[in-house]
Design brief:
CATH superfamily: Glutaredoxin
Shape: globular
Order of helices and strands: EHHEHHHHHHHEEH
Distance between the termini: 22 Å
Radius of gyration: 18 Å
Number of domains: 1
CATH topology: Glutaredoxin
Structural class: alpha+beta
CATH class: Alpha Beta
Strand order of the largest sheet: 2-1-3-4
Mean pLDDT: 93
Number of helices: 10
Strand content: 5-15%
């Protein structure tokens, strides 16, 4: 029986993806090898300054958006936020840190143990460290110097990271994610795509709802496998 694939799309600068990142880990832990979790990235903040200037122009610009982010995080007591995030620290684009994650994916694909559990994947650890650097430490993760620090935390050789930037490998892999998001008509971050694209859960969705949908898909598979013509 083919394992159901769960595709998770997010933007690294999205606060809703940040507060809900533990849900993805919990999903992988609770369902284990019953499901195949595929992590992808979409482009919500390709030009964060242009977007916030445009979308938040009548709501206080960066000041208003930073207040909105604080309000979101307030609803999650276990999640931390630095006062300077989006106030003093305003990354230009999520594309740069996304490219860093794609390098981590390329490295893990070359490793023998590339089938590691979700939280042990280098790319997933890289995403968590980048979110921590931005939301908790208020570092500009679009800047290579910050990415160098994150690489050191993950024991990644940053010269290798730069080589994969220069070769075009990383950006090619990232464009693949962005194109898939367009094909699947992903509207925002985070989004779960389930049941071969027939179901999607978008935005501030509780873990209970995500898990219930996965259980239903697994149950449906069992029912189908038990059916027979007579």
């Amino acid at each position: 029986m083919t394992k159901p694939k769960i595709i998770h799309f997010s933007d690294i600068l999205c606060v809703w993806a940040y507060v809900a990142q533990s849900n993805l880990s919990r999903l992988a832990q609770d369902f284990g090898d019953q499901i195949d979790v595929e992590v992808r990235y979409c482009s919500v903040f390709p030009d964060s300054h242009g977007k916030i200037d445009r979308v938040w122009a009548d709501r206080g610009g960066f000041t208003g958006y930073a207040a909105h982010v604080r309000d979101v995080v307030t609803g999650f007591p276990d999640v931390s936020l630095n006062d300077d995030t989006w106030v003093a620290t305003r990354p230009r684009s999520s594309a740069s840190p996304h490219q860093f994650i794609k390098v981590a994916e390329l490295i893990e694909a070359e490793q023998v143990a590339s089938g590691n559990p979700l939280d042990e994947r280098l790319s997933v650890r890289a995403a968590k460290e980048l979110r921590r650097a931005f939301f908790v430490e208020a570092q500009d993760i679009s800047h290579w110097d910050v990415q160098r620090e994150v690489a050191n935390r993950l024991d990644m050789n940053f010269d290798d990271v730069l080589r994969r930037y220069e070769s075009g490998e990383a950006i090619a892999r990232l464009v693949g994610d962005y194109e898939l998001a367009q094909i699947m008509k992903i509207e925002g971050s985070p989004t779960y795509v389930l049941n071969e694209g027939r179901q999607r859960l978008y935005g501030n969705v509780s873990y209970g709802i995500v898990a219930a949908n996965v259980r239903e898909i697994l149950s449906s598979q069992l029912d189908e496998s038990a059916s027979a013509c007579s």
